[in-house]
Structures are given as C-alpha cells and as structure tokens.
C-alpha cells in the first residue's frame, strides 16, 4: 500500500488484519502511521521516490484470475416508492455523462454506490477517510473549481447522506456564489443511519440523536441560484439582485415542473446549475416512508405539501 492509510480508525471487529497468505508493505511519509502498524512491514519514504526506485524491480505478470473481481451491477426495483439506495444510485449513474468526478459521503449506502459506480479511471473518485463526516460537500466545490481552472471541466457529482449533509450545508451557498459545476445528491432517509448502525454494532441500541427532523426543501435551489446571481451582479449574497414578482413566478413554474420529473431527469437538468437534489429513500427498518412526497416521491424539493 503506497501513500494511503492502511489501518484506519474504525470500530473494533474481531478477526485477522489480513487474509490468510497475504503480506503487506506499507509505504508512507508519516512516521507515526508507520510506527503504529500492527502487522506487515512499513517503510517511511516519499511515494513518488519509491515508485521511481521500484519500477526497475517490478515485472509485469498475467492476472491471477480470469473472471471479473465483481459481478455485474444488480437490477434494482425502480417501481418501489420511495426508492431504495440501489435504485437511487442506478438512476444517478444513468444520468451521469461519460466523464465525471464522483465524491461520496453516504456511508450507510456505500455498498449500493460501489455496485452501481465502477471506478475505473484515475482521478475520478474522492471520498472521506475513517468516518470523518463533513468533507464531501466542500471538497466537491473545490474539485469543481479545480476542474474549471484546469480546463477539463468535468462535472462533479457529490453523493451525500442527509446525516452527513448536516455538517457543511454552507457548501451549497459557496457553490452557487462560485457557479461551480457540481451536483449535490442527498440521500434522504431522515436518519443519521451510520451512527445508528455503529450503535447496534457496539451493542448500544436506542441512542439519542440518529433521527433527523423533517424539513421542507421547497425553493431551496432557486434561493441558492438567486444568491449566486446577486453575488455576481451586485457583490451581495442576500438575494436582492433578482426581480421580485417575476422571480417568484418563475419559482412556481419550476416547482410545478419538478413534480413531473424523475430522479435521473432532475439530475441531468441540474448538472449545469449546481443545485441540490434530494432523493428520498426508506428509513432503516422501514419499507416505506408515509411522510414523503405523496404525488411524486422522486424529488423531495418538488413543491408539494407533505402528507
């Protein structure tokens, strides 16, 4: 393992660190990480210098297995409402262009993400380390700005859970102000689900705090876009740079249109606007969510009243 942490902070799970018959060489420039390695060999070195030195010692060998390491993605149920995590990931993946950057901070849905998104290109996937939440959304804005500055201009897709969303919602305002080419997809199961899962793992169920209050998202994207226009036109971020009645009329028409769109269509339409898209999904242990949007389910920021 070169340049990345091997023994990340994580709840204790009994068992071997490495599979039987596996050897480990960790190359890191952090002497603290090297000294704490419980198994294997650890080398303190610069990753680039190590690569340059080891190239002449490594020979190409054929693959040890002929079959793919992972089976093809499953086919999720797209008719169930609200959509489950695998269906949301499949819909989002279908709406992505050929070349894009993916950021992920939805720990309770990471399995579904890995099944639908096959990461096979360098510099195309970024995620947080060891459960440190709040990183993905501001990082996605930074990645989008870097894409624009470099001229590659790949759109950035930021997948985040509504628990992770609580840590850095101000990233939405920065994205609007900077007109960043980033799409935020929020998996909304109204739970801090990963905290609940950890509590069950540690045999401390029913901890306080995992349930999240239900909020209306009506008009949030329009307000963010309005703030972006105002910041660009007048140097203010308070939304006063847009017309009043006409802007409200446009908002009503947009909200009516949202009710007729699917998640994939909504993703494609917002890929150029930097707006936030919230996708409802079932809460842990529940087959459906009776308080989600009754008329359409697919986009929670649709303008319908909650039932």
What does this structure look like?
By secondary structure, this protein is of the alpha/beta class. The chain has 2 domains: 1-61, Rossmann fold (3-Layer(aba) Sandwich), CATH 3.40.50; 85-280, 3-Layer(aba) Sandwich (Rossmann fold), CATH 3.40.50. Helices cover 34% and strands 11% of the residues. It has helices at residues 31-35, 47-54, 85-94, 110-116, 136-150, 162-165, 170-178, 193-201, 220-234, 245-258, 263-270; strands at 25-28, 41-44, 101-105, 125-127, 156-161, 182-188, 276-280. The strands form 2 sheets. It has a 5-stranded parallel sheet with strand order 4-3-5-6-7, sandwiched between helices. The termini are far apart. Mean pLDDT is 76; it is low at 231-243, 256-264 and 284-307.
């Amino acid at each position: 393992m070169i340049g990345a942490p091997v023994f990340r902070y994580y709840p204790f799970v009994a068992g071997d660190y490495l599979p039987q018959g596996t050897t480990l060489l960790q190359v890191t420039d952090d002497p603290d990480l090297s000294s704490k390695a419980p198994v294997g060999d650890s080398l303190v070195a610069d990753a680039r210098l190590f690569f340059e030195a080891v190239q002449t010692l490594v020979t190409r060998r054929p693959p040890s297995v002929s079959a793919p390491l992972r089976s093809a993605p499953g086919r999720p149920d797209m008719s169930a409402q609200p959509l489950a995590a695998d269906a949301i990931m499949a819909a989002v993946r279908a709406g992505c262009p050929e070349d894009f950057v993916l950021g992920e901070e939805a720990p309770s849905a990471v399995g579904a993400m890995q099944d639908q998104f096959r990461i096979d290109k360098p510099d195309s996937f970024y995620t947080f380390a060891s459960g440190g939440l709040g990183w993905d959304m501001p990082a996605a804005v930074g990645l989008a700005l870097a894409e624009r500055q470099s001229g590659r201009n790949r759109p950035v897709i930021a997948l985040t859970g509504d628990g992770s969303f609580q840590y850095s919602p101000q990233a939405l305002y920065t994205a609007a102000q900077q007109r960043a080419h980033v799409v935020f997809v929020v998996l909304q199961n109204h739970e801090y689900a990963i905290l609940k899962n950890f509590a069950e793992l540690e045999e401390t169920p029913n901890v306080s705090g995992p349930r999240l209050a239900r909020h209306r998202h009506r008009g949030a994207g329009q307000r963010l876009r309005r703030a972006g226009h105002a910041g660009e036109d007048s140097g203010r971020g308070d939304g006063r740079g847009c017309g009043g009645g006409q802007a409200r009329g446009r908002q009503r028409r947009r909200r009516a249109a949202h009710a007729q769109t699917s998640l994939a269509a909504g993703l494609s339409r917002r890929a150029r606007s930097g707006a936030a898209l919230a996708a409802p999904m079932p809460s842990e242990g529940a087959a459906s969510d009776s308080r989600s949007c009754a008329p359409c389910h697919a986009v929670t920021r649709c303008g319908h009243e909650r039932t």
